[in-house]
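Help: why these numbers?

___
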Amino acid sequence: MLVIASGNPGKVREFSHLLTGLGLEIRPQPEGLEVEETGSTFAENARLKATAVARATGAWALADDSGLAVEALGGAPGVHSARYADTDATRIARLLKELATAQAADPAASRAARFTAALAVADPSGTIRLEVEGICPGTILKAPRGSGGFGYDPVFLVDEAGQTFAEMAKAEKARLGHRGRAFTLLDPQLRALLG
């Protein structure tokens, strides 16, 4: 059994899809279990969550901490991506407003951005056994496009695809996205560890 150390249904669905080929029983973390993300990096937060969930459940745990860093905003929202506002719509609205303000002050301010996903796997004792990081570069659009995905997906244009994550098919997002890229690194190591 592998517990996904997240209370975010979108992340749990995405990881369940990525993990289908491993033949593992996948479960979300127990309801009500909250892990305070006090790390200053995505990797630190992934380690905190994996360790806490593994210890709480006595099972292997896979944690992800991911987020968006925008060049014109000095890397914000960064590790605060999920807490930037209360809902996906208000997070996107705040991001677009802050970017517009930055570009009004400096017309050359870059809309370049990147999604980062740090993954950590802890054994049932809470010891971190694997860590990887995946990065997907892109650009923040001025308005949302597409109806799929979650979070910042409708405003994040993946330059190499010419589409936002919200416009992509799930398989394409899994291949090009930050979580998919991180999982590509994790998969062979996880198979060796749990096999």
